[in-house]
Design brief:
The chain is an alpha+beta fold. It has one domain (2-224): L-fuculose-1-phosphate Aldolase, CATH 3.40.225. Helix content is 42%, strand content 13%. The protein has a seven-stranded antiparallel sheet with strand order 4-3-2-1-5-7-6, sandwiched between helices. α2 (80-89) packs parallel to α5 and α3 (102-109) crosses α6 (181-204). The longest helix is centred in the last third of the chain and has 24 residues, at 181-204.
Length: 236
Amino acid sequence: MRDKRIRKLKEDVYRANFELVEKNLVIYSFGNASGIDRESGIVVIKPSGVDYREIAPDNMVLVTLDGEVVESELNPSSDTKTHIELYKAFSDIGGVVHTHSLHATAWAQAKLPLFCLGTTHADYFYGEIPCTDVISDEQIARGYEKETGTLIVDTFKNIDYHTMKGVLVACHGPFTWGDDPQDAVFMSDMLEEIARMNFMSALLNPEAKNIKRTLHDKHYLRKHGENAYYGQKGNA
């Protein structure tokens, strides 16, 4: 049973990584998507530095939550330790994605959060999409990738990761997560689109701020709230 689950997860993670290319969220070997089998504690992630044209389900890399590589001769993504910190802290997520998508990364490099300027944002993210602090020299020296994960987790001390499934890492780029690898890719695509809209909105009106809470609540809760009614039954 475990082998069957892992095989399916490798296929899911492969498809998630390939989808990043299809949606123009990555170029060359940038970025990565991963998934986790919670029962075994095995994380499946893209191999490090391998062009997306060369990846396949069989060369996805398996690692434990302690970072130990399992059944692979390839090195896992250099961001693996960041993914692991998120899986440890956000106990019910099933997928993580990191990209260097153009607009989201521009906001991360500017060290700015994404205000909720409109209802597109409110449909998918409850509140401002936060930007972390800049990682400290001490954190870089301790272990850059692991501490990047810690930085994200610290940013979410007072934010619900269930309703805010994305973050901008200052000077670096976006991370998103979801119920599974495909959901994490979807959130990454939404984050990039919102970042693009915010950039254009800021050009038109540099004073633009968050929409009013009642409108924000209405759009988020009609999709994700206890009494959600958006979409068809069983597929909200």
